[in-house]
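Case study B.
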Amino acid sequence: MENVKTASASSGMHQHKRTVKAIFILVGIVLGVIFLFPILILILNSFKSQKGIFLDILGFPSGDIFCGTNYLNAFELLDYVQSFMNSLVITVVSTILILLVSAMAAWVLVRYKTKSKRRDFHFICSVHAGSVPVRHAAACTPEFKAEPFEPSWVDFYVHRLWLQYVHHYVSRIY
Amino acid sequence: MQKSKARFWLFLLPALFFFCLFVLIPTLMGFFYAFTDWNGISDSVRFIGWRNFGVIFKDPIFLHSFGFTALFSLCAVVLVNLVGFLLALLVTQKFPGATALRGIFFMPNLIGGLLLGFTWQFIFTSIFSAIGQATGQQFLQGWLSSPETGFGGLLILTVWQLSGYMMIIYIAQLQQIPDSIQEAARMDGANSRQLLVHITLPLMMPAFTIGLFMTISNCFKMFDQNLALTDGGPYRSTEMLALNIYNSAFGENHFGLAQAKAIIFLIVVAAIGITQLVVTKKKEVEM
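Model:
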């Protein structure tokens, strides 16, 4: 009698766990679709012609709407290779500098100073990383218009990302 | 002692150099320009005292923009962190596809703000109205054409984009909470709700400190998404502070005025950010 009771209780528990798991999967699928939807639209629209995007808003790119030359145009008209190289140079240079400079600073700040002083520096850095909006805006414009590469961008990215990384390192360590 | 002091400054020197060059000096210069009538191009820089600040506080567009940004930031910070935390709780459960979901939720962060803005503009204006026409729902029509829908659109875009990033921060903290503490609480008879409120949430506070700070500063500074999604429209009603400052600097060539706005902006964001850090730091507990 006792045995049967335990068995039924454990099977009920098992049933409960499976229901919870099913709910998780269901919620996960719904949220996943919501999060992926804009990216799906982005990809679908990249295969449609300019007219087709607005003629058949939700449709799959086929027939008259389909336009396979968008990617070719991107490479030729927008000088994709050049733009990509610009991004690559900025990313590589700034990542190396950021890692070097901020890891050095974070290391000595954590090793050598009292907690309060460290925190002050952390404050200053993180708060300043959030300021100077005019410079931020100014640096956004050339990016938007995809103008030719200028070395001053590197400065900007190094400046902004470096501060974020100091913030990140210091906050991680203590 | 002497030697280690030298090493301390040697290691800090590159960081201080970049900090002075790109943050400290421009900020100090900015404080100077805030009291001038410089138009950004000409050589004539006249000192005009507090006049810029007087103009700003009588400018209805700036004041509206300030209020809009504050309200938006409040809603976005709450929603982003709530959604991010719930997503983190979801994907740390054991069920098939949980790892794949982490990648999916984080994906919006891999695309730039401008591109996201234009994509969502298409979704709000074209797709929403197409769905609205098909189903007969009136509220799906005319999105981004009124201040309210512009606000809603920006909010949806921000929550969609930032919550995945916050989720990563919260996952990292959730995984640092040892199972033994949760097991001990369960032994003592705590149910799931008590476990969340009394064990998980207090131990999550360090992550909330960082997460809240990042969302607050990101929301106040929001620029790309605002520019791409609504461009401040209709009639500058959804123009946030960064865009407002940008427009008066580069659209109207009032650099001195824009700089004065930026100074006010800096002080407000710094005050809010530091207050939040101090308050949430106090709530952190030792594990």
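The radius of gyration of chain B is 23 Å. The remaining cases will be described in the next quarterly update.
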